[in-house]
Design goal:
The protein has two domains: 147 residues, Galactose-binding domain-like (Jelly Rolls), CATH 2.60.120; 235 residues, Glycoside hydrolase/deacetylase (TIM Barrel), CATH 3.20.20.370. The protein is built from eight helices and 25 strands. The radius of gyration is 23 Å and the shape is globular. The N terminus is likely disordered. GO terms for molecular function: hydrolase activity, acting on carbon-nitrogen (but not peptide) bonds.
Length: 411
């Protein structure tokens, strides 16, 4: 029975990291920066005016929808998908602060009445409804009103953690700067309003994105010839599309497509040489090292976007996470992994500050499903560390690792 040994270690990792400000993000095909167009609320005007205009230019946009709003025009929304547009999740009840008078009316529900659990339930339900109606499961989310806080007073908290769990991105509204692909939290990317303005008003933001290699995410609502409130003017859209057509250095694509590319590049140490962003604990002190927050080094390993996991390991591949621990802590180690049914489990060797142990990653749940289990404990001293995992056996073709979670041990 063959065994594959992995090493998980907290040590200084000998990669010549660039200092902050020295690194440059690599956009595809020599592009200098990215632009995405997005619309909220599944308003009928985008079907009548916006999508036909975008289709003429071959521009794909992201539409954040409410399931009950798209049922009456399913054929048109399905046609939009077929034309290369993306469908995102915008909740079912459009929750915003109850400070807005209209949110206190049926069928709305104020953010102050939500818990993290009820918000997660609504987002999952909305995803299921969209999948049933359109046959796609959204990877992109837009915060209604751009607001991310639920609850009241001392009980108020962000639900960005829920969005990070369920989606690749969460987009804001009425923000002030483009997205920095190297440093952004994809659960809270900025959304710049394109409603009620002429194209010339957005040019300074486009130029900033060009100069710094950023990602400009534009957000609107209605789109039509009339200059009504919360409306992206058709002239604005046409001028923007003409501008992009004349400037080959711009990559214009839906939010989910750009975000997936950003996520893949940020996990690839062959492309980036800045230090991985440090991961800190949540309110319970748990440190969730998702694959998307790690950095892979080596000849073959890759981040598999549709599984949100690292795969294609060889004995020359490694993955590194940066972790920040406030006080010396003993953690339970949870690993989420998948391995082919016909293969035996994988041994892993854990080393932290001289502490060694060998634990077994057994078979996963079969049929490519992931298994999550506690595989051991580890004590980490206070400070910032690099956490590295690497195989010592070359035959790891079927193994994928989605996350390592460090949970403070009680008692």
């Amino acid at each position: 029975m063959s065994k594959q040994v992995f090493i998980l270690t907290l040590v200084g990792f000998c990669v010549p990291y660039l200092l902050r400000g020295q690194e440059e993000f690599m956009w595809p095909e020599g592009k200098q920066f990215a632009v995405s167009i997005s619309f909220d609320d599944s308003r009928p005007t985008v079907l009548k005016y916006g999508i036909p205009l975008l289709n003429r230019y071959g521009v794909g946009a992201t539409f954040y929808v409410h399931p009950h709003m798209i049922e009456a025009s399913l054929d048109e929304w399905k046609a939009a998908l077929s034309s290369g547009h993306e469908i995102g999740n915008h909740t079912s009840l459009h929750p915003c602060t109850e400070n807005f008078w209209w949110i206190r009316q049926e069928p709305y529900k104020p953010l102050e009445e939500y818990t993290l659990k009820s918000m997660e339930d609504e987002l999952l339900s909305t995803n299921r409804q969209i999948e049933q109606l359109l046959g796609v499961t959204p990877i992109s989310f837009a915060y209604p009103c751009g607001q991310t806080q639920i609850g009241r007073g001392e009980g108020k908290k962000s639900y960005a953690s829920v969005v990070a769990k369920l989606f690749t991105t969460g987009r804001g509204w009425l923000d002030e700067a483009p997205v920095d692909p190297l440093y952004c939290d994809l659960a809270e990317i900025t959304g710049i309003s394109m409603d009620d303005i002429d194209f010339e008003a957005i040019l300074p933001m486009i130029n900033e994105a060009r100069q710094r290699g950023l990602w400009l995410v534009l957000a609107g609502h209605d789109t039509q010839p009339e200059h009504t409130s919360q409306t992206t003017r058709l002239k604005f859209l046409e001028d923007l599309c003409e501008y992009v057509s004349a400037h080959g250095e711009i990559w214009m694509a839906p939010v989910g497509e750009v975000a997936t590319y950003v996520e893949k590049v940020r996990t690839d140490g062959r492309l980036l040489h800045n230090k991985p962003l440090a991961v800190i604990g949540d309110t319970q002190g748990c440190i969730n090292l998702k694959a998307a927050l790690g950095r892979a080094y080596g000849p073959q390993i890759e981040y598999i976007t549709d599984r949100k996991a690292f795969g294609n390991w060889t004995d020359k591949d490694t993955v590194v996470w940066s972790v920040r621990v406030p006080t010396p802590t003993t953690y339970q180690i949870e690993v989420e992994w998948s391995v082919a049914d016909h293969e035996v489990g994988k041994d892993m060797k854990l080393i932290v500050d001289g502490e060694e142990q060998v634990i077994l990653l057994g078979k996963s749940d079969g049929n490519g499903k992931f298994r999550n289990a506690v595989v051991g404990t580890i004590t980490i001293r206070a400070g910032e560390h690099n956490l590295m995992i690497m195989p010592t056996n070359a035959d790891n073709r079927s193994l994928t690792i989605r996350a390592i979670r460090l949970v403070p041990q009680k008692g």
